[in-house]
Design brief:
Pfam families: OBP47_like. InterPro entries: OBP47-like_dom, Odorant-binding_protein. It comes from Culicoides sonorensis (Biting midge). With about 210 residues, the chain is mostly helical. The chain is built from nine helices and two strands. The protein has a two-stranded antiparallel sheet with strand order 1-2. Helix 1 runs antiparallel to helix 3 and helix 4 runs antiparallel to helix 5. It is globular. The two termini are about 30 Å apart. The C terminus is likely disordered.
Length: about 210
């Protein structure tokens, strides 16, 4: 559902743009690439109903939330409306079953997305308290009593995993996509946003 592109766009609006690392430089996690993440970098199949996403986004837009809070409540809404809850708790099994059904005869995508979901849910569970504390701080300011940010973190983690491991046939090899792939293969955008250097540096992008 590509929440990642939306969150990174918010980050760019908050902090301005940074020079992207060149092909010959190591990635600096404090310097996010200077271009917004293109939603067509990886043409992954949709596994979540567009109508559900649209309805949840419209509901969030009607509230007086900042952009990150909107994504938080949208993620929670999508999970609930997509029936990924069991006994009032999020169910990894229900989500994986839904993904397998949605992808049908696309085993490579099922393996890739399924693996990303497992990796990111595990990370979300292991770092639950850390994630909540991180999102409570500026610039996010999310109160966990109003919206638990862990599902949003997991959704963005899944998007990043898919982008980094995108199959060649589905990959858009333009410079901005390659810059973001290099960055996300090493860096956690949320952990680095509070320490991103605001100075724009020169970089050879050719």
């Amino acid at each position: 559902m590509n929440f990642l592109a939306k969150i990174l766009f918010v980050a760019l609006m908050i902090f301005g743009t940074e020079a992207a690392p060149s092909e010959t430089k190591d990635v600096n996690c404090h310097h996010i690439p200077k271009t917004a993440l293109n939603t067509t970098c990886c043409m992954a199949p949709e596994v979540i109903s567009k109508s559900v996403i649209k309805q949840c986004e419209e509901d969030a837009e009607g509230q007086n939330y900042n952009e990150v809070m909107k994504e938080c409540v949208t993620t929670a809404c999508v999970i609930e409306k997509s029936d990924f809850m069991k006994d009032k708790e999020f169910s990894q099994e229900l989500l994986l079953s839904h993904i397998a059904t949605s992808l049908g005869d696309q085993p490579k995508w099922n393996d890739l997305i399924g693996s990303a979901v497992k990796i990111c849910i595990k990370k979300g569970m292991e770092q639950h308290e850390k994630i909540i504390k991180m999102f409570a701080k500026s610039p996010f300011g999310i109160n966990a009593d109003e919206c638990n940010p862990v599902p949003m973190y997991v959704a963005n983690c899944v998007d990043a995993e898919i982008l980094v491991n995108c199959p060649e046939k589905s990959w858009n090899d333009e410079k901005s996509c390659k810059s973001w792939r290099r960055y996300l293969s090493k860096c956690d955008i949320f952990e680095n946003i509070p320490t991103i250097d605001l100075k724009v540096e020169e970089a050879n992008l050719e």
